[in-house]
Amino acid sequence: MSLQFRLPDILSSWPWPRTVNPHTEQCGKRLMLQQKSQQYKFFPSKVQAGLCQAAIQLASLAYPKFSKAQLQVAMDLMFVFAVFDDSSDHMNAESVQIWANAIMDTLRSPLAPRDSKNELQMLILSSFWLNATQNMSSSAQKQFIEEFESYTRSVTEQAKDRDGLVVRGVESYLELRRNDLGAKPAFSLILMDKDIPEELFESDLMLLMKSHAIDMLTLANDMFSYNIEQSRGDSHNIVSIIMAQEDLNIHQALDHVSKMHDDLATEFLQLYETIDRSANPSSEVMKQYADGLGNWIRANECFSFESRRYFDKDGLTVKQTRLVELLPRVGVKEDLRDE
């Protein structure tokens, strides 16, 4: 008899609905044509096409109000993330560090000659960035580079953990994930066409909303990805960490993570209401940013079930029933530890 667990419905009352950008088809065709070109072929065709399709799908959900030009930037970035994440997962820390350095050099000097070892990957990055700079304000570009550097640094730290078989505690894990998730550079696109004073982005309200949104994405991702990750023995997941740290079974751990997510969601909505009531001249910009964060949280959930990232062809069924068949681990007899 197969073993099952139930995913909590963490966004049943979330006020941001599923929305798709109307420019998806046009921008998606451009990205698909670009990734099929000879210059971009460094993954097997099927794998690369899948990464490209995922980038199109996620960007269209995450940035539904973007113009055509802005959405193209967002799709290109999602493809950059897909390439880096897929490749770095199979690298040791030293290799990831070399690649991270090459990425930052490319962002700072996109037209400079590239190291032949990273030429294809950097070609994708420089193509993205040259287009992005035509559509981003100077403050958005500055923020993006800073956030992307934090992202690459954290991905390198994750690789070090993987090499050393390090298992972090809850707080240490969340601290790392606030950067290696890639949410911060993705969020820097929300106001990409506006020059925003640094002090506004560094205000307590904006920082807290961003932090809550990132933690919500982390918790959701880890609940959705738990089944795949446990099947291959990957403990870099908040559910696995809490099971080990608190001596809980999968059902109890999911309830624990769901409660953490609910508390963050409640606080996020309270902060959003604070902006709504504010007479601050910057409140409209802050509300646009907050709406972007809120929509990202919904988009992430939709993408997780609608793509094949975590549930293969069964995503929509799982979304409806919330039931997941526990995948076996090779050579390990699994149970749900129902005491």
What structural category do the secondary elements indicate? mainly alpha
- Uncertain regions: pLDDT < 50 for 5+ in a row? 332-339
Largest sheet: 2 strands, antiparallel
SSE pattern, N- to C-terminal: EHHHHHHHHHHHHHHE
Q: What's the CATH C level?
A: Mainly Alpha
Number of domains: 1
Number of separate helices:
14
- Helix content bin: 55-70%
What can you tell me about this protein's structure?
With about 350 residues, this protein is mostly helical. The protein has one domain: Farnesyl Diphosphate Synthase, CATH 1.10.600.10. Helix content is about 65%, strand content about 0%. The chain has 14 helices and two strands. The longest helix is centred in the middle third of the chain and has 28 residues. It starts with a strand and ends in a 14-residue tail after the last strand. The C terminus is likely disordered.
